[in-house]
């Protein structure tokens, strides 16, 4: 193992193995890059250096690796990828720490459960469709000033705050065995509108995912958000809902914001039972 605080033992170069893909549905392939070691790099800075040199370790000129990022401070979630086998944000993945675990190389792969757009950039639309399905928002009934809303108790705030930190990064769904990848091919002459409709139907049939379940619990526990709590529970008890969770608990262990996802899933399960009984009596 490399002792990285000792200048004498710092590596001269960092080997970076990247799983590349030239476009949606194309065959993936691996390329190895080599960049000079610098202290305190994160994975985004490594990718910037690879883009600047645009050649592999054996000198072959290649197109720069594509990736996504935004905030660079683990807030937007867009830079999520699989780094040395673990799904996480590349902006907060520190190379010195990664080299302590694996001094030989960094291995960068796109997330597994979303269609690849190119290289390390994926299409996370399904994640947002899940939030849409469970109506993960506070409904607005007008745009006039209606005064301040209902106050939240300290206990409610404490329960809600951790859930509100979700940045829709997708780590939880990428690690969930119940969340299977959906990648549809566009049919000949299919319009954008028809393709989107078909894609949303496929997303709605499949497991909505722990992030959406947790957000439904957040908004059902909000003084104004709970106005449409029954609609959220209808979505969570429909096809692809809470019943599909196998309770493997992978989601909670990879969430970078340490959101208590399994607590949310437990709450959603109990709320779903009450909702179903209520619906049965309302018949
Ligand atoms: S607990 Fe449920 S949502 Fe979380 S990883 Fe397991 S199956 Fe997926
Ligand atoms: S629950 Fe955690 S892992 Fe899942 S999308 Fe939100 S922040 Fe990411
Ligand atoms: S760039 Fe926003 S979380 Fe990494």
Automatic annotation (TrEMBL):
GO terms for molecular function: 2 iron, 2 sulfur cluster binding; 3 iron, 4 sulfur cluster binding; 4 iron, 4 sulfur cluster binding; electron transfer activity; metal ion binding; succinate dehydrogenase (quinone) activity. InterPro entries: 2Fe-2S_ferredoxin-like_sf, 4Fe4S_Fe-S-bd, 4Fe4S_Fe_S_CS, Beta-grasp_dom_sf, Helical_ferredxn, SDH/FRD_Iron-Sulfur, Succ_DH/fum_Rdtase_Fe-S, Succ_DH/fum_Rdtase_N. SUPFAM superfamilies: 2Fe-2S ferredoxin-like, alpha-helical ferredoxin. Keywords: 2Fe-2S, 3Fe-4S, 4Fe-4S, Iron, Iron-sulfur, Metal-binding, Oxidoreductase, Tricarboxylic acid cycle. It comes from Stieleria bergensis. Its cofactor is [2Fe-2S] cluster; [4Fe-4S] cluster; [3Fe-4S] cluster. GO terms for biological process: respiratory electron transport chain; tricarboxylic acid cycle. The lineage of its organism: Bacteria, Pseudomonadati, Planctomycetota, Planctomycetia, Pirellulales. Its EC number is 1.3.5.1. This is succinate dehydrogenase. Belongs to the succinate dehydrogenase/fumarate reductase iron-sulfur protein family. The keyword Iron applies. The keyword Metal-binding applies. Pfam families: Fer2_3, Fer4_8. Residues 155-187 form the 4Fe-4S ferredoxin-type domain.
């Amino acid at each position: 193992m490399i002792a990285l605080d000792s200048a004498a033992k710092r590596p001269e170069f960092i080997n970076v193995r990247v799983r590349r893909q030239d476009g949606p549905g194309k065959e993936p392939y691996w390329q190895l890059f080599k960049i000079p070691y610098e202290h305190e790099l994160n994975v985004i800075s490594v990718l910037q250096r690879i883009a600047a040199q645009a050649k592999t370790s054996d000198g072959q000129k290649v197109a720069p690796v594509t990736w996504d990022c935004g905030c660079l401070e683990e807030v937007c979630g867009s830079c999520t990828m699989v780094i040395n086998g673990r799904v996480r944000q590349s902006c907060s993945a520190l190379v010195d720490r990664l080299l302590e675990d694996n001094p030989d190389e960094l291995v960068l792969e796109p997330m597994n459960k979303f269609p690849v757009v190119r290289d390390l950039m994926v299409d996370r639309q399904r994640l947002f469709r899940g939030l849409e399905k469970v109506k993960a928002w506070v409904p607005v009934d007008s745009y006039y000033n209606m005064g301040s809303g209902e106050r939240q108790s300290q206990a409610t705030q404490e329960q809600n705050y951790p859930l509100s930190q979700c940045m829709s990064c997708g780590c939880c769904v990428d690690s969930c065995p119940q969340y299977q990848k959906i990648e549809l091919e566009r049919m000949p002459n299919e319009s954008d509108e028809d393709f989107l409709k078909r894609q949303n139907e496929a997303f709605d049939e499949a497991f909505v995912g722990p992030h959406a379940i947790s957000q439904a619990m957040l908004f059902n526990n909000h003084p104004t958000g709970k106005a449409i709590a029954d609609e959220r529970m209808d979505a969570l008890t429909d096809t692809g809902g809470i019943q599909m969770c196998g309770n493997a608990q992978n989601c909670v262990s990879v969430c970078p914001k340490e959101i208590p996802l399994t607590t949310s899933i437990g709450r959603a399960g109990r709320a779903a039972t009450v909702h179903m009984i209520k619906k049965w009596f309302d018949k």
